[in-house]
Amino acid sequence: MDVQIKKGTERMPKHIAIVMDGNGRWAQAKHLPRTAGHHAGSKAVRRTVEYCAQQGIEVLSLFAFSSENWHRPKEEVDLLMRLFITTLKQEVKRLNENKIRLLFIGDRSAFSQSLQDKIKESEQLTCENTGMTLIIAANYGGR
Asked: How far is CA 93 from the centre of its chain?
């Protein structure tokens, strides 16, 4: 593992990758609709990004929506797409203010034009930031 030394002898990774999985199951276990899990997951992402930036992590990769997720019920996919664009609208300004660079990897072509435009706009707004890099993997294949 590639590490850097921080605060004396404490070792911190330079890059952390998280596969975001289980939000729907978490909600169901609490007798909530799966959508509640997705909303809770977006809040957890904000806390995670803030913490990693504060700790000096250089790169945070979030595997957010695999190509296999298109097979979920249409209502759930529609909610995830709305949540995706809403979260971008709400958070990109904060990312920019905190000098966080936002990059997306994966096939964007399946997303609505409005989501593709928001992704591109978000990347352009933050492209010169020199703080942590936040990579969002969306519509990527795991096979």
From this structure: 15
